[in-house]
From TrEMBL:
This is Clavaminate synthase-like protein. It holds the Pfam family TauD. InterPro entries: AlphaKG_dependent_hydroxylases, GBBH-like_N, GBBH-like_N_sf, TauD-like_sf, TauD/TfdA-like. It comes from Conidiobolus coronatus (strain ATCC 28846 / CBS 209.66 / NRRL 28638). The keyword Iron applies. It comes from the Eukaryota. GO terms for molecular function: 2-oxoglutarate-dependent dioxygenase activity; metal ion binding.
Amino acid sequence: MLVNTIQNSLKHLNRSALSQALNQSKKCSFSTTKLTSFKLTTPFLTNSLKQVNDELVIGDNLKVNKSWLRDHCKCENCIHPSNQQKLHSSCNVHTNPTITQMSSTGNQLKITWAPNSIQQRDEAHESIYDLDWIKNHFDADIEHDPFISKGSSKAWDINSLPVKDIYLNYEEFMNDNKVWGDAINNLAKYGLCFIRGAPLKEDSVTQIGSKIGNIMNTFYGLSWNVKSEANAKNIAYTSLDLGLHMDLLYFESPPGIQLLHCLTNEAKGGDSLFVDGYKAIEYVKEHHPESFEILQSVPIPFHYLNDGRYYRYTRPTIKSNPNEHYDLFFAPPFQGPIVPPKDIPLSKLYTALSQFSAALHQPQNLYQVKMNAGDCVLFANRRVLHGRTEFDPSTGDRWLKGTYVSWDDFKNKFRTLHYNN
């Protein structure tokens, strides 16, 4: 009787499952009142599969284009096993490849493709897929990028910036992977991080920078000095007040991360200033929506015309980036002549720039700190603006050493940190 009961109740399972249940039933012992031992293990159920035109329907609602599936086979004939690069071009994938066999059990999908599913490959081909991988990549609202899904940038002011969390110890940063990861996460989330206790050596800044990416070699060199000098080629190399700005916006690809390492700071004044551009953007977007649109649409030229060099690039002040919040470009000292827009009055452009500057300079947005010898600050150059108060060089020396890391290299470090997490 038990066998009949199992057969009736498990008709929806495959033969393998039924066989397991029947074999298990032979091991059961009964009394007239209760079942003394019985164990049934239910295997993964088979997913329904159906071809509809150029799509494969998996289960109830996952529809996947067949060309996309064939293109994303991960076997060693499609992805080189050592260098992980594709061995075919998407241009050569059949627009509606033929499936001759298919099955799906649990989280695995197996497909046999007819010959010529990819041009010049005249043999049949078997592909095995992980269904979770398909869902994460094909049925996704945004690009599948750990920097996007786990970066979680958070706009801050001085009331919400977790100051204790963004200060890290040099030795721990250099030698402890967890602390190094904290620095990477701080830069992704807040665009700002400090390393304390760095050796007072001129190459310390590049050693720190090398931990988060390759050092950018610009016309300033691999590293450069920030201190007052006669006949300075850059306003940063004076003792004057240095307003909030970003560096090298006259490059097509400005640096992503900037580092400044303090070797000495004994002069009166010379505090460092930092503002989260995201916070100012959010304020202008909410309180001055017309200005927000103008700042996104009117291109502003930036240039460096000095010392036998002429760099130039033109871009709007704010660039919406759905995958990374925003890109911001603001550097008044290096702004070139504005070309009057044809459809927007210049008065509105200057109003928008003024309102954005006012948002940046709201007292609650300004993090001001006097860096001590051994402190090194790292910040996202296209998000966090930096500046400096005026200092008196007659009262002592102020010497910072700087370097740059590209945004792509930094995001590479973040992705590798989170790839399997």
